[in-house]
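for the writeup, i need someone to sanity check this before i put it in the appendix. the sequnce is what the collaborator sent (i think, or maybe the updated version? ugh). structure was predicted straight from it, no edits. if anything looks off just tell me and ill rerun, i have time this weekend
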Amino acid sequence: MSAFRRSLPLIAASSALAVVAVTAALTPRGVGASSNDAIAAATRTVADVRPLMAEQVSAQKASVSALAAAASSAAYAKAQAAAAAAAYRDSVAGRTAALRVSGVPCDVYASACVSLSRQEAWLMRGGRVVYGPVRVATGRAGLPTPTGNFRVFYKVVDGWSNTYDAPMPYSVYFYRGDAFHEDPVTVRSHGCIHLSLKNAQYFYRFLHYGDLVEVRW
C-alpha cells in the first residue's frame, strides 16, 4: 500500500491540472472566444487526463499485488523449509546425525552404547541419551572387547567369573562371557566392560533382556 500512497500526489496533481485547464478555458482570452469553445476545450483536457490517471492507478495496484504475492511466496517457502528441517530432525537419519554431533558413536536403536577409543558408555532410549557418558574400562591388548551389535541375554546381581575366579557384581551379559559389571575403571578387563559400583547398578536396572548393545571403536 505504501507504493500506492506514493502515487496519490501524482494523481492529485493531474486532477489539479485538469481544473486549471477548465478554469483557463472558461476565462475570456480575447475577442471571439465563446463560452461553448471554453467548455469544449476544458472537456477535452479532462478527457485527456483521465486515461492517464486510470493507467497510473492500475499500474500501482498491479505493483502492490505483485509485492503481496512475492511476500506470500517467500513466507510459504520459509514455512516449507522449516517443516522439512523439523521432519529431518525427527527422522532416523536426523537423530543419528544429532548423536554423532554430540559424540555418541551409536545408532538411535541402541539401548547401551560403548566407545572403545574414548572409554565411555551411554544408556539410551528412543534415540536419545538418558544416562552418561560414564567412564569405563574395556578389554586389554590381546583380550579386546569385541565391536558390533549385541543383545542382552543374561543378568545376575552376584555374578562370578569361573574363568578368572573373580566376582562380577551386577553383571549384564551381551556377548559370550563379556558383560557390563562392577570393577575398577582404572584396570583394563579381559573383554568385559568395567563400571563403577554406582554405574554398574544403574546399568543393571536399566537394561533388559533383548536390549541392543552397540560397541564401537
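Residues 35-90 form the longest helix (56 residues). Residues 7-14, 16-26 have pLDDT under 50 and may be disordered.
thx in advance!!
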